[in-house]
Specification:
35% of the residues lie in helices and 19% in strands. It is of the alpha+beta class. The N terminus is likely disordered.
Length: 245
């Protein structure tokens, strides 16, 4: 049976506590008979673990001075007043949280904003492969005189300062030169000079497999297929790994 019940001999409470205040006790203290009980599944617990890992990795990657544990326990608009600890047991909330951190959309957002990115309704969009370029790969919108934006992705692998930097970047830009400048601003001139920049996104690229969260992969594929960019304006994703060289 793929389910787990914590402290099952005590009264259980629903995992969803939207709109209510929840007291979080010290996890290092011993269990007590008065502790509230949450009944859930292993799959749901894995969702919470995924969101916690994504939050921690993002805060470290971007140098955000915020405690990931505090983020997990605080009520969020994204979850309609619930905290991630309970809300992300649910699949939809888990996806929202992964995209929030994967796309670096602040520390909170309205559900509607994230749902617009997750929306499966692509009616009116022009479909092409994830590497489509030219007219089918463009992500255009706005006034006719506005610069035409495309989805670009880039891989950077460079050894420096006793460490090996492996980074993935994806963003909407009018040209590869703009993307290279963004990489230079983040990682320096040497990294920008050797960055491999391409139009579109290849989900099967060995250099990026395992680095980019699945929900972000799905989003990048959707961006590459769309001609309209309204839901993705400002898209700018960077994932990096640093290892001792």
């Amino acid at each position: 049976m793929n389910a787990m019940t914590l402290n099952a001999k005590f009264q259980t409470v629903p995992a969803s506590t939207a709109g209510t205040w929840v007291e979080y006790l010290d996890p290092l203290d011993a269990d007590e008979s008065s502790d509230a009980v949450v009944t859930t599944s292993r799959r749901a617990l894995t969702r919470v673990a995924l969101v916690a890992a994504e939050a921690g990795a993002r805060f470290q990657r971007e140098g955000i001075g915020h405690d990931p544990m505090a983020w997990m326990l605080a009520p969020r608009r994204l979850f309609r007043g619930s905290a991630a600890l309970e809300a992300c047991l649910d699949r939809d909330n888990c996806l929202r949280a992964v995209l929030l951190h994967g796309l670096s959309i602040g520390l909170d957002a309205t559900p509607a904003r994230i749902d617009a990115i997750l929306a499966d309704d692509l009616s009116g969009d022009d479909f092409g492969g994830p590497w489509s370029g030219g007219a089918r790969g463009d992500v255009s919108g706005g006034a006719p005189s506005a610069p035409r934006l495309r989805l670009y992705s880039a891989v950077v692998v460079i050894a420096r300062g006793g460490e090996l930097l492996h980074a993935f970047h994806a963003s909407l830009a009018p040209s590869a030169a703009v993307v290279r400048e963004r990489i230079r601003a983040r990682f320096g001139s040497a990294a920008a000079a050797q960055a491999e920049i391409r139009v579109g996104f290849d989900p099967d690229c060995p250099a990026t497999m395992g680095m980019v969260p699945p929900a972000v992969v799905d989003t990048l594929i959707a961006v590459g297929r769309r001609r309209r960019r309204a839901s993705f304006e400002g898209l700018d994703i960077t994932v990096e790994q640093r290892l001792p060289s």
